[in-house]
Every structure is written in C-alpha cells, then in structure tokens.
Specification:
- By secondary structure, the protein is mainly β.
- Helix content is about 15%, strand content about 45%.
- Strands 10-11-12-13-14-15-16-17-18-19-20-23-24-25-26-27 form a 16-stranded antiparallel β-sheet, with no helix packed on it. The chain has a three-stranded mixed β-sheet with strand order 1-3-2, covered by helices on one side.
C-alpha cells in the first residue's frame, strides 16, 4: 500500500466514525403532559392515545416516540372536542429532550368557545307531526335552539325521531341528517331529513325455519289482529312470546322488503332441542337448618305437538337440624312433580297447567309424606306485564316423627291446627304486575303480587280458612353502579270452624329471602320443647315484613360484578295482628353478592337490634331470644 493510499483509508475511517459510524440513540417517551384543557380532563383525552408515557415501575418497557402516531393523536383530540361541541378547538404538541434519548411530550389544547344550536330544520315529517307537535319536537328530541351542540345528542335525536315515526305506525321509517357548523361564530344548524315510508298495518306471519310448529299455531302468539296499526313493541312482544315457548334457539321478527303498507311479518326461526335434562345442586346453610340439595329436571318441549311442555322434576335433599356438628334431627326430604303446561288452550290466550307430585317433607317439629295435585288456568294481560291465574289445589299429609310438645294445646294456642293425617284443599287466585327491567337483577321498576286463598270442605279439605298475601317491591337506580331496592309484604290467615289454621299454610319469616336477622323460618310463634331444650317454630296467621337495601357494584371479577349490599329488615309474624306491638323485629347487616348467569351467589350476615329478651313489655314471647346474629348463604337476590 502506498503512503497516499494509507492516508486516504485512515481519513475515510475517521470521517465514518465521526459522521455516523454509531447508530443514533432511539427516542422514547418518559412523560406526557396536557395543557390548556378545561372542558375535558387529561384522563379523558389520554384514553385511546397511541402516545403514552413509559411505566414508572422498574423494568417497564420503554415506549418509543413515533412522530406519525403523535400527529394522529392530535387530530383525535380535535375530533373528541368536536364531539363535545368545541368545533373550533385545535391541538398541537411540543417536545422536550431529556437525557439518554428520553422525551417529554406536551399536548397543548386551545379549546375555543362551545358551539350552540342556532337553527333546527326538520324535513319530511308526516301530518301527525305537523303544527304544535312540530314546534315541540326539537326540545323533545334534545336539540332545542340555543342549547349546546353535542354530537352524541345529534345522533340520539336521529334515533329518537326514527323511534317516534315507528311508534306512529311508519314501520319502515328512517332519518338522515347534517350538521352545518360556522366555526368562527361558534354556531350550527341541525338538519334532520325524515323518510317515514308508508303507514303500516300488520297482517299475517310468514315464518321460515319454524319446524316442528306450523305457522297457524305460531300465529296464536300474535299480540295484534289483522289490520292493526304497526307499533315496534308489538314485534318485540311477539319475539318474547315465541322465545318463551322454548322450541326455538333464535327468533328474529322484522318487516320484509320492499316497504309495503300491509306486509306480512317475517319470522325467522332456528329450532332448539326439544328434550333437555338438567342436573344441579345447592347448599343451604342456616343457623338452625342445613341442607344439601340436588335437582333433576327432564323437560320435553312441544310434547305430542301443540306447544305442550312436559316437565318431570325430582329434588332430593339431606337435612340437618340445627347443624351437622350439633346434630339433633336429620334425614332425607324429597319433592317430586310431573307438570303439563298447555298454552293457547282451545286456540285462546289461556294457558292450562296440571301437576301431580309426591313429597317427603322434613320440618323442625314433624315429618310428612303424601301426594298433591294442582289444576289451573293462567292468562297474560297488558303486553304480558300483568298475569292472572286461578287454580284448585289438593294435598294429603301423613305425619310422622312428630314432636308432641310442639302441638300440645295446653302449651301453645296454635296446636289445634294439626291433625294426623289431614287433607288440605284450597282455591287460589293470583295477580302479578311486573314492571321491572329484569327478573333476575332488577335495578328499576315495580313488582306487585296479590294472592288469595280459600280452603273449605266443599273443595275436598279438612280446614276452612281464608288467606291473603301481598308483596310490593320497588327498584330505583341512583347511578351507574348503585341502586336502591325496597319491599313491603303483608299476610293474613283467618280460620273458620273448630280447627285452627293448618300449620302447613301458615306464614313463616326469616332466612336469606325474608327477614335476614333470623334463620330460615324462625321469625314465628314458637313453643318450648323442654325435652330437647329448644324452641320450635309453628308459623303465624299474621305477617308483616319491610326491607330496604342498597345494591353497590364494586368491581368486575372474572367478567362478573361483585356487589356489596347493606340492608335493614323489620317485621313480625304473629298469631294475630292484635298482638302487634310498636317495635318490629329490626335487623341490619350486609351481603356480598357475586353475579353469575344463573343468579347471584350471595353470602351475608344480619344482626338483630332489638327484642332479644324472652318476653315483650306486654308479655308476648319473642322468637329465638338472645340470638343476635344470623348467617346466610344462598343463590339469587333477596327480592
């Protein structure tokens, strides 16, 4: 190598090293700051951004700085402000270089004034929305002139106008719209263009996939008659009714295209399995009763055609009284039943129900076995929110393992309501009004149940009596995660003739679904069984229960909510209301409820606040004196 060549090579290496022979340090984001924001918080703006700060904890992976992603984030911030009515808002960024390639990103926001609605134009409205109705419409849709313009309200107004048109009978209605924004003047015009389509009158069903039920049978579920004006709730109600049949796994109800004034309603169905076997179990843990329960349920849908449902149920259980570690009485209890349900009886809206069963019962003071039967009719009213039912019921009781002290007329005024064996027969009338948003986990609405019962010899029984039971429940949301629930229950049983009220039809309070200051059935007139040194619950003829609870969703655990439920219960269960005193049995407590698809798994404790002594000031005996605390474990909400 010549000297010239050597110096040339050395110079090239030196230039390479000084001008980029080492790779530049990659920049990463240490901090992200937001400034200039008042209407929206930094957390609201930061949600969904690609530019994020590196975690503060040791070993956190460094988040690389991407100028292109930062530009997209700035535009996203401007769009977010526009959705909240700030159409002139702008966003820019600045960088601060830190040590070792770290940068601090500042997102600077200039919000500007919030845009207000200066004009609302509604086009294409039908005659039903003319005149004064048209003048009121912007306010009813949530977009009155002078109000702040929020994009979410604009979208909601389009949906609300579409729903209004459909409620007026325009089943094919649609609404499009525009926003004309003057950014400099911070004002906008809202233009909604309605396309009502024809006024629809409903007709017959056109079903597909409806095997094995013929279309004329499905048509019995229609809540409309041919020619009735369209209403969206009619289609939703038909969908719910067909789901309840249990014959189809999917149900879709719609109006067919093209738009017509008298269309046949399209019904697309997917058949479900008609035979189902369910196996399950449960555990009931109370202070004075513990149970291990099993369930076997065979269900046959569309049994022999005609949408009949045949159900065969067997519910065996092992019972320990009071507990497995302090065992005084134990044994097996069994409920068995075969039930046949026939909807649309004689092609009407009546449902016939027939059931026969044989039970082996286990109560604290006695055991029994015997058959029972029930025959009834039901009907739904008021868009299926109101249910009425009448039935005849019969049950035969053959008692054994009877605790004689509990039925001695010399020691208890309720002892005369017992004979061995006895026949029990009664007529029952039931009315249920259900306005809840959910039957399993209600957060809004009302529920009212009224039950009347008449027992007399003319229908096959040994006892003459009249019984009434009423239950009122109310639910109100207090926010996204908090709701309040209240309940008031009343019961009265009046016997006639020589015998007192039948012990198996009396009222019992106490337990996880009743008064939670007592164990299952323990808030009741009691008699002392001196031989075993325990009080035996006999049931009462007069019952009153008031409950109030707060349902608080704490957090999701494995996808389901964990709830905290503080509560207060007050009530009494007596031989008659003449014994009712001013101070009801009152308890406070709390439960933890974990929501699952089959209901809430609930455990809780109730603490009695009063009436723990043997007798009241008027000399009436208090149930379970001295027992202040009751624990509960069960499935489902209390009410």
């Amino acid at each position: 190598m010549t000297p010239t060549t050597w110096w040339t090579s050395a110079l090239a290496v030196a230039l390479l090293v000084s001008c980029g022979g080492t790779a530049p340090t990659e920049r990463w984001v240490r901090r992200v700051r937001v400034s200039g924001n008042r209407a929206l918080s930094a957390s609201e703006l930061g949600e969904g951004l690609a530019t994020r700060a590196t975690g503060w904890w040791p070993g956190a992976s460094k988040r690389p700085f991407d100028p292109g992603a930062l530009e997209v984030d700035l535009r996203r911030i401007e769009r977010l402000y526009a959705e909240h009515g700030y159409f002139s808002a702008s966003a820019r960024s600045s960088l601060k270089e830190l040590a070792k390639g770290a940068v601090e990103v500042e997102l600077q926001v200039v919000e500007g004034p919030r845009t207000r609605i200066a004009r609302v134009e509604l086009e294409g409205l039908p005659p039903a929305l003319a005149g004064p109705a048209r003048e009121r419409l912007p306010r009813e849709l949530g977009i009155p002139v002078g109000d702040e313009l929020l994009y979410a309200r604009y979208l909601a107004a389009k949906s609300a106008l579409t729903a209004r048109l459909r409620e007026l009978g325009h089943g094919y209605a649609s609404v499009s719209g525009e926003l004309l924004v003057e950014r400099e003047r911070a004002r906008a015009a809202v233009l909604l263009h309605a396309a009502p389509g024809p006024l629809v009158h409903l007709g017959a069903l056109e079903a597909t996939g409806n095997e094995p039920v013929p279309t004329p049978t499905l048509a019995l579920a229609r809540p409309w008659r041919d020619g009735d004006r369209f209403h969206p709730e009619e289609l939703a109600l038909l969908e719910r009714r067909i789901y309840r049949m249990g014959v189809y796994s999917t149900v879709a109800v719609s109006l067919p295209d093209p738009p017509r004034a008298d269309p046949e309603v399209a019904l697309k169905l997917t058949p479900a399995k008609l035979r189902r076997l369910r196996l399950g179990g449960g555990l009931g843990i109370e202070r004075r009763r513990q149970e291990l329960r099993l369930l076997t349920d065979w269900t046959f849908r569309n049994f022999l055609g005609g949408l009949r449902t045949l159900s065969i149920r067997l519910k065996p259980s092992l019972v320990a009284i009071p507990t497995v570690w302090d065992l005084q009485r134990s044994g097996v209890a069994i409920e068995s039943e075969v039930e046949l349900v026939q909807p649309y009886l004689f092609r009407t809206q009546l449902t016939a129900v027939g059931a026969v069963g044989y039970d082996l019962g286990f109560e604290e003071a006695y055991r029994f076995h015997g058959p029972r039967t029930r025959l009834g009719l039901e009907r739904l009213f008021a868009r299926d929110r109101l249910r009425g039912a009448v039935s005849w019921n019969f049950q035969f009781f053959d008692f054994f393992s009877v605790q004689s002290a509990a039925f001695d007329p010399l020691t208890t005024p309720l002892g005369l309501g017992f004979k061995d064996p006895y026949r029990l027969a009664w007529l029952e009338q039931l009315a249920v009004l259900d306005l809840r948003d959910s039957a399993l986990d209600a957060r809004r609405g009302l529920y009212l149940e009224l039950r009347l019962e008449e027992g007399f010899a003319g229908v096959g029984g040994d006892f003459d009596y009249f019984k009434v039971a009423a239950d009122l429940r109310g639910y109100l949301p207090l926010g996204a995660r908090v709701s309040i629930a209240a309940r008031a229950s009343f019961g009265w049983l009046h016997p006639f003739g020589e015998l007192d009220s039948p012990i198996t039809r009396r009222f019992y309070l106490g337990g996880p679904n009743s008064h939670r200051g007592f164990s299952y059935g323990r808030l009741s007139p009691q008699v002392l069984d001196a031989a075993n040194d325990r009080h035996v619950a006999l049931g009462g003829n007069a019952s009153l229960l008031l409950s109030l609870e707060l349902r608080i969703r704490l957090f999701r655990l494995f996808g389901y909510w964990l709830n905290l439920v503080p509560f207060v219960d007050a009530g009494d269960n007596l031989q008659s209301f003449a014994e009712l005193e001013g101070a009801l049995h009152t308890a406070v407590g709390g439960s933890l409820a974990y929501e699952t698809p089959i209901g809430a798994l609930r455990t809780g404790v109730g603490v009695r606040l009063n009436r723990l002594e043997e007798k009241t000031a008027l000399g009436h005996a208090n149930p379970d004196p001295g027992e202040r605390i009751a624990f509960h474990l069960t499935i489902g909400a209390a009410f």
